[in-house]
Amino acid sequence: MFNVVKAFGSIFSTQGYSTEEAVVDESIYPNQTGRVRFQGSWWPARCDRQITLTPGDTVYVIGVDSITLLVSLVPAD
User: Fold this and answer.
1) What is the CATH number of the domain that holds 40?
2) Residue at 14 is within a domain
3) How many domains would you assign to the chain?
4) Which segments within 1-77 are labelled E, that is strand?
């Protein structure tokens, strides 16, 4: 079975999230899931801000919810 914690262990530290970049592949609309290209694979992704992210936008992975990446336009502090 796929282990999300193990798969993302190198990305996320216990002190916060890294600034790993992903590229939007399918538009991400407010309160909806889109898709990003991250580390050579496509992943479902969501942004909790009320913005639309369009294909080609560079985003930062700031978290994980099940298999959905949580992304932001700015890196996590």
Assistant:
1) 2.40.50.140
2) no
3) 1
4) 12-13, 16-17, 21-26, 34-38, 41-46, 58-65, 68-72
